[in-house]
Fold each of these.
Amino acid sequence: MDDFWLIKIDNVSKVFKGRGMFRNEPEVKALDNVSLTVKKGEVLGIIGESGSGKTTLGKLILGLLKPTSGNISFADINNNSTENRKPLVQVIFQDPYDSLSHMMTVEQLVAEPCIINNGKNVDRNRIIRALESVGLTPVESFLRKYPHTLSGGQRQRVAIARAMISEPDMIIADEPISMLDASIGVDILNLMLDMKERTGITFLFITHDIAAAAYISDNIAVMKEGKIVEYGSRKQIISDCCHEYTKSLLLSATGAGTENEYFCSEF
Ligand SMILES: Nc1ncnc2c1ncn2[C@@H]1O[C@H](COP(=O)(O)OP(=O)(O)OP(=O)(O)O)[C@@H](O)[C@H]1O
C-alpha cells in the first residue's frame, strides 16, 4: 500500500451550541483538536464509544458540517482527465432499512446516485455490474424488489452497490454492521475487503467494536471524548497499545472468556 494521502485533517475542533429551546444546555465539544491523515487505498478504522465524536468526524469529511476551527484538505485527483478534482466520498449508514427509500426498487435505488450526479438515466448494465459486485445474484431476481422484502445483510449490500456505482474514491462506513447478526456482519466486512482489493477504494470504517476494526482496518484511530487518544497500525493497536482506554476496549472484546469472531488468530 502506498502512503499517498487522500484527506488530511489538521487540528480540527467542532463545537455544537447548546441545545434546548433557549439554547440553555451547555455546548458540546464533539471534536477537540483532531489531526489525522487518511491514506489512499487504506481501511482506516475509527473506534470509540458512543458520543466520542466518530460520526461528527465523518460528517465534517462529507462536508455536512463545518469545523469550528482547523482545516480539512483533500488531495487533487487526476484520473487522466484535464481537470483535477476533489476525492468523491460516499457514505454507508448503520441502518440500511432507514437509509433506503421504501418506495423505490433495488434498481431505482442503485441508479439514483448517478441520476442525481449526471441528471440522466444510467446504463442498465452498470446497475447489473454493481449488484453483481456486491454478490446480489442472480441480479434479475433482485432488480424489482423493494427494501422491505430483503434481509438486513441484503439491504446493506444494496447500500454498498449504491455507494459504489458512482465510483467514489472513498466510502465512509458508519457502523455498517452494528444492526446485523455477527455472521452477516463478517460477510459485509469481507465484501468491503474484497472491494478494497479489487478497486483500491479507501474506507473510513466507523465503529464502536474494536474487534471488527481489527478485522478489517490497516490503521486504527482510537477516539475518546472528541480526541484521538491513540493511532497506529492494526497490529500496533492490538498487540502493543499504550493508552488505558484502548486496553479497556480490547479487554471488553476479548476478556472473560468471550469468543469474538472478528479476531484473527494472528492476534
Ligand atoms: N447536531 C448536534 N447538536 C448538538 N450536539 C451534537 C450534535 N451532533 C452530535 N452532538 C454531540 O456531539 C458528541 C459527539 O457525537 P457523535 O455523534 O459524533 O458521536 P459518536 O462517537 O458517533 O457516537 P455514536 O457511536 O453514538 O453514534 C455527542 O456528545 C453528541 O451528543
Amino acid sequence: MLSALVARTADGWHVLVRHEPHDKKADAFLIGPSGVSAVVICEHPPDDATAQILLRQAEQRCAGIRSSRGQVLARTAVHLVAILPGAHDARSDGLYRALAEKDIDKLFRRDTTHLERREVEGIAEQARDRLPGYLPLRVSTTERTAEPAGLLDVEDLTEDQLAAAQQRSFESWMTFLHPQQQAVVTRNYNGPARISGPAGTGKTVVALHRLRHLARRSSGPLLFTTFVRTLPLVHQQSFHRLAPELGDRVEFTNLHAWARGFLSSRNKEVNLDSRRITTAFSLAWTVHRESLTDLEPTHSYWETEIDRVIKGRGLRTLEDYVKVTRKGRGVRLDSGQRERVWRLYQTYQHNLHDRGLHDYNDVLGMALTELRREPLETPYAAVVVDEVQDITLLGLRMLNELAGDGANRLLLVGDGQQQVYSGGWRLSDAGIPVQGRGEILRVNYRNRAKVLEFAQRFDATNRVDDLDGAAGVALRDVESANTGGTTRSWQGPELELPDALSAALRISPVPPGQTALIVFKQRDLDCVASILRKADVPFLDLKHYQGDDDGKVKIGTVHRAKGLDFQAVLVVQFGQDDAGGEAPEDEARELRGRQHLVAATRARDFLWWGVVESPER
Ligand SMILES: Nc1ncnc2c1ncn2[C@@H]1O[C@H](COP(=O)(O)OP(=O)(O)OP(=O)(O)O)[C@@H](O)[C@H]1O
C-alpha cells in the first residue's frame, strides 16, 4: 500500500513513513502540490476520537512550517486521509477523507494542485525536521519517467510560462496563511466576531479556513452566506478543494435564497416578483412625486430610501423614521419632509399588499419573525456572512437570530470601503455586539503592486469605518504582498470603444477565461455585450458564473463582480455619472468612488481602465 504512495515520489511528491506502527499516530505524511496529508492505513475507518487525535498531532507537528514569503502553514491546511485497503468504497466523514485502495489516485489529481515545486520542496525539507520517527522514502531518480505532474522547473520556463507560474501561487492560500490570518482562523470568540480590512487582504480566505476549523470541532451543519447570488457558489468550489472531506456539511447560499427556502420549509408562501414590485413602486411614485421632487427629483433615490433606510432598517412607525440617523444619505430631511417620504412608503406598502406581493426586505422580515417564533430544529454550528457591508440591518438581525447565542456561532466579514449600495449602519444597530472580537487584516495579497497603486486613487480621503463605528484601515494604508503588474488607461468617444476593447484584449497577457469586463450600470452592460458579440468574443454574464474557467470573458456590473477576482480586468466607465447618479452629488461621488475601488481591486495582474467620453447613447 505504502509503495503506491512512494511510487509517486518519482513525480515530485514526498513521502515520510513511520518507522514503527502506532495506532495514535499517522502512518505516513504525503507532501506535494496538493499540500500536506497525514495518512493512516487501516482496516476500519477511524472513530471520531481517534481521528481527532491524529489530526491534532498532525496539525501540531506541521505548525511552524513557513513559506519563503514568511507565511505559516495553516493548521487547517493539513488533511487527514484514511486509506482502507480492503474496502470497495469509502465515505469521508468530515474529519478525514476515506479512500478505498483503488481510489488512491484521487490524492494526486491535477485539479487539486495549487503549490509550486519550490514551495513543495520547502515544506518537505522543514517537515523532515519536525517529524522524527518518520523516514523519507523515494524511488530512485533513475526510475523517474515523466516530467512531474503539475510541477514546473523554473529554469525551463519561457517568460510566458513564468508569468503563468506566478499566477498559480495565488492559490497557495490553500496551504499558507499570513500569521495574522492564521490567528484569526483558529481564535476562540466568545460571541459574534467581525473581520474587516481593505480589498484583497484575504478576508474570504480566512473565512473559508475558519469554516473548516469550526467544522472539525463541531457536529451539525454550517452556513456561508452573502448578499450576492452567485458568490457563494464560486466560494463553494474553492471550499470543496480546501476541505474535500466535508462534503455538503457547509451550506453555501445567498441570504434571500436561504430565507425563501426556510420560509418554504415552514409552509409560508412568498410571492416575490421583481417586475411587479417595480410597478407597485412606480404607481406609488406617481401619487407622491409632486411632494418630493423639490427635495430630489429622481424616483430611484426614494426607492433606495425605502429599501435601505425605512424597510432595510426595519422601521415600523413614522416616529422611528423621524428619529433615525440616515447615515450615508445625501438629502437632509427634517421631520415634515420625512412625513412626506413616509406617505410614499405607505402607498407602496398598500400596493404590495393589494397585489399579495412581498419585496426582498419583506422576505427577510418574515424569516426573522418565523425564526423568533420557532428557531431551527437543527441549529447551525456556525454562520459566516461575507460582504456584510451590503446587507441591510434587517438582514443582519435575521442572521443574528439564525446564528443564536454562543461562542464562534456568528462571523461577519466585510469592508465598509467596498459598500456598493447606499445607506449605512453599525453592527451595534443590529444588536450584534462585537467589542473585543473585531479583527482587521492589513496585507493585500490579491493585487500586483501596479494594480493596487492604480486602485488606491479611488480611495476617498474620508475616514474608513470598521463596520462598527470605529476607525478601520483604508486601501491606501494596506501593505502590499506582491510586486509587478500592469495597468493601462484609455479615454475616447464611444465610437472608438470597440477597437479599444479589442486592443485591450490583445495586449492583455492573460487568457480570456481569466478575464472580466466590469461596468457600472445595467445599460452599460448591454452596450459592451453587443460590442463583444460583434467582435466574436465569447463571453459569460457574471450572473451565471460559478467559478469555472470556460475560456470565456466574464462580463457584469460591479455589483456582480464584488467579492471575486480575475487575473485581468477591463473596466469601462461611461462618462462621469456612473454610480448611483440619481443621488445628490456628494453621496453619488462617494458611492462612485467605492464602486470604482471595488472594480479596480478585482484585478490580480492586469488592469485596463477605459473612460468613454460621451455618455449619450
Ligand atoms: N495567505 C494567502 N496567501 C496567498 N494568497 C492569498 C492569501 N490570502 C489571500 N490571498 C490571495 O488574495 C486573494 C484575495 O483574497 P480574498 O478574496 O479572501 O480577499 P478579501 O479580503 O475577501 O477581498 P475583497 O474584500 O476584495 O473581496 C485570493 O484570491 C488569493 O489569491
